Amino acid sequence: MKDHYESPLSSRYASEYMLRLFSADTRIQTWRKLWIALARAEHELGLPVTAEQVAELEAHVTDIDYECAAAREKEVRHDVMAHVYTYGKAAPSAAGIIHLGATSCYVTDNADLVIYRQGLEYLREQLKKVMANLVKFADAYKAVPTLGYTHYQPAQLVTVGKRATLWLQDLAADLEELNFVIANMKFLGCRGTTGTEASFMDLFDGDTAKIDEMNRRISGEFGFTQCFDVCGQTYPRKVDSRILNCLSSIAQSCYRMANDIRLLQHDRQVEEPFEKNQIGSSAMAYKRNPMRSERICSLARYLMADAMNAPMTASTQWLERTLDDSANRRISMPEGFLCADAILRLAQNVTDGLHVNEKIVEKTVREYLPFIATENLMMEAVKRGGDRQQIHEIIRECSMDATAKMKAGEGWDLLADLATHPEFGMTKAEMEAVLDPMLYIGRCPEQVTRYLEKLAPVLSGVSGETAQIDL
Questions:
Q1: How far is the C-alpha of 254 from the C-alpha of 226, rounded, in Å?
Q2: Active-site residue list
Q3: What digits encode the pLDDT tens for the residues 8-67?
Q4: Rounded CA gap, 291 and 264, in Å?
Q5: Which of 13, 18, 48, 118 could bridge across to 341 with cysteines, CB 3.0–4.6 Å?
Q6: pLDDT by residue (tens digit) across 155-202?
Q7: Are 89 and 65 in contact (CB under 8 A)?
């Protein structure tokens, strides 16, 4: 509806997959699957739940009457009980055993864990695609010299590909963290109102082995091998902190990469993709703005700020349960996933179409190479009998003079100035002989090759791609 607010994450940025994952359908259908898993386990472990009742529940997973649920929730002010009622209407023979022994967090929290894990697994593949794009880029440009920058001031040479490995290494660290979070996710299970399992002690006549088996069967149905050892009514909210912190880390890495690209595009050395009919500015028709990289940075700032919600919520939980987490989590957790999804889709697009203007890169290198070569020239002058301290002072004076002329827009020739000093003992032609950029990139090509070889097993079978960005 155009007369109602909708989140730009859903209307402009996030993928269809992520929008469906965090939809009401996925959430409520997961609730119903959890009720089925509970009923099935209770039936198999001897409680008064019939196979026919389980079968009827299974037949009505997707036919959700949202109007009925909304009307019931308005009446009882409880979303879970509204859906218990609605599910019972769809499966009347099983209405009396739905949610047997459970508390609301059985469905809400376990469903969240299922959805979050699916979301993390999806983001992992999207992250790998960005990394695969950067691997190809780094390999292609591993030996192309470019001016390095420290403090955003000209420094020693690196290579275009080596710089890309800095971005890649950040993302690889994020992948390691993401793998850890996924591998260590646990299920809440069905633990009762305060985590004591008291209701099931009553239902199973104190048979604790059956309670443990029930939880093993339920968690197994959803692909979890472990439940939390202890809990209150909810799973520990530190899990949310761990998840959003992981997503924030991805945002930090993508921000750093995108910001570097923005700086390089300003210098026209590297450019993000630019569509044939893309308009850079409504007034300045010549503009080629790095709008995708800017959008990555913009969304990344939002995600890094959003991640602060989880630690504030985790730190303020009272005793066995408080409900001041609920409204915050309904917003902060899905929005965090949608935002991370949007960032990675943009990062795929940018890294797959990243263009290097090699002539400008080479021109920039040539412009600063005389300054960069001065240390090597000093060593050579000393070899020829010069005094190291005297040579250093000559280089300093001539360099400062050349820099001043450069800033004033005047012509300058550092090597010619150095050659006028007999103490230097070298002609301009002799100096120019050592101005091969490849002499100043150190081990960059080797470093890139070795690092990409290390990443190869991690990215095996992953092909980079260009995500289709509609806006």
A1: 33
A2: 151, 281
A3: 999 899 999 999 999 999 999 999 999 999 999 999 999 999 999 999 999 999 999 999
A4: 14
A5: 18
A6: 999 999 999 999 999 999 999 999 999 999 999 999 999 999 999 999
A7: yes
